[in-house]
Design brief:
Elements (H helix, E strand, L loop, with lengths): L24 E9 L5 E5 L3 E4 L4 E10 L5 E10 L7 E6 L5 E3 L4 E10 L14 E10 L4
Parallel strand pairs: 1-9
Antiparallel strand pairs: 1-3, 2-4, 4-8, 5-7, 5-9, 6-8
């Protein structure tokens, strides 16, 4: 239920543009790591503000504390879950497994927007904060 949209949607400049006059939404970020993965993982910024239709880019940083390469995969969630259908990721590190070499740290981007239809849904009237949360796990069999 709290999974954002990830399917490609063809949009042009008229269907994806910031909604002028709409209240700003705070998009908050959190990152966790499974106890089975010897990584640290955290957002590089705690939050950004956007209006529906506005694209934004956020970064997370991951670091492999071990002395061997490790492949991880991220799961994600959007809170509150009723906002998830409006959260669209254009590009994300979470679409693929990530390999970090020993002692390697990398920046991981997520490029997203809140669907302009958010503004037309009366159930979204009281939602000002949306959290995008990731948890990294060791990739199965890797």
């Amino acid at each position: 239920m709290g999974t954002p949209k990830t399917e490609p949607v063809v949009r042009d400049k008229e269907t994806l543009k910031p909604l002028e006059g709409h209240r700003k939404l705070r998009i908050k970020f959190s990152g966790q790591v499974s106890t089975m993965l010897d990584w640290s993982f955290k957002p590089e910024q705690r939050q950004v503000t956007v209006v529906p239709g506005e694209t934004s880019l956020a970064f997370f940083k991951a670091y492999n504390h071990s002395d061997k390469p490790i492949v991880g995969i991220a799961t994600y969630n959007v809170i509150p879950e009723q906002a998830a259908p409006y959260f669209n990721k254009i590009q994300c590190f979470c679409f693929d497994e990530q390999q970090l070499d020993p002692q390697e740290d990398i920046d991981m981007p997520v490029f997203f927007f809140i669907d302009p239809e958010f503004a037309n849904d009366p159930l979204m009237d009281d939602i000002d904060d949306i959290t995008l949360s990731y948890t990294f796990f060791k990739a199965a069999g890797r």
